[in-house]
Amino acid sequence: MHECWLSLIPLNASTAIDIGCGSGRDADGLAKIGLRVLAVDSSADMLHQAKLLHPNPKIEWLLDSLPELTVVLRKDREFDLILLSAVWMHLPVLQRSCAMSNLSKLCAKNGTLVVSLRWPADASRGMNEVSSEEIVSLASQSGLKVRQTSNTDDALGRSEVTWSFIVLTKIPR
C-alpha cells in the first residue's frame, strides 16, 4: 500500500510517528525496517489491540489525537518520518490549519510527512471532503513543501475507491 513513497524516507531516518495508527500495521512495518516508532491513536481500545497484535519493542504506543497532539508535543521530539494514513479526511476543515502547524513542529529538518487521502470521502464513516490543493496550501503556510504526489487503486480492491499520497518535506530554515 505504501510502496509509492517508501523510497522517499530519508536515508539517515531513525524515527517515525504514525498518527492515527489504528491496528498498528503501519507502525509495525516501519519498526521492521529499522525505525523507532511512536504510534499514536485517539482510541484506547485500538491502542490496546495494536499492542497485542504488534508487541515490538521499537514501538511506543501513545493515546493522543489531532489537531492538538498535546501529549506528543509535550515530549519535545522531532521525527524523520510522519505518517497520516487514512487520517486527514476525519479532521473537520476548521481543525486542519492547527493540525498542519503541529505536524510541521514535529517534522525534523529535511524530514518527510506522508498524508494519504481516500477518494471519495465516506461520510457514513465520519469522513469529510478533502482536497490535495488544501493540503499543499496549509503545508506551505507551515514550512513544508510538496516532494511527490501519487494516486493508487484501493489495496482492498474496491473499484469505487482510490487513494492519493502527498509526500511533504520540511523546508530547512
Note the main attributes of this structure.
173 residues, 7-stranded mixed β-sheet, 7 strands, Rossmann fold, alpha/beta
Description:
- The chain is α/β, with parallel strands linked by helices and 173 residues long.
- The chain has a single domain, classed as Rossmann fold.
- 28% of the residues lie in helices and 31% in strands.
- The chain has six helices and seven strands, in the order αβαβαβαβαβαββ.
- It has a seven-stranded mixed sheet, sandwiched between helices.
- Helix 2 links the parallel strand 1 and strand 2.
- Helix 5 packs across helix 6.
- It is globular.
- The model has no long low-confidence stretch (mean pLDDT 92).
Question: Would you identify the regions where 5 or more consecutive residues have pLDDT less than 50?
Answer: none
Give the distance, in angstroms, between the N- and C-terminal Cα atoms. Answer: 32 Å
Globally, the shape reads: globular
What order do the SSEs take from the amino end to the carboxyl end, as H and E?
Answer: HEHEHEHEHEHEE
Tally of individual helices: 6
Integer count of domains: 1
Q: How much helicity do the residues have?
A: 25-40%
CATH topology: Rossmann fold
Q: What Rg is obtained from the alpha carbons, in whole angstroms?
A: 15 Å
Using the 3D structure, state the CATH architecture. Answer: 3-Layer(aba) Sandwich
Structural class: alpha/beta
Q: How would you write the strand order of the largest sheet?
A: 3-2-1-4-5-7-6
* Total beta strands: 7
Largest sheet: number of strands, sense, barrel closure:
7 strands, mixed
**Tell me, what is the CATH class?**
Alpha Beta
Give the name of the CATH superfamily: Vaccinia Virus protein VP39
Provide the residue-averaged pLDDT: 92
What percentage of the residues does DSSP assign to strands (E)? Answer: 25-35%
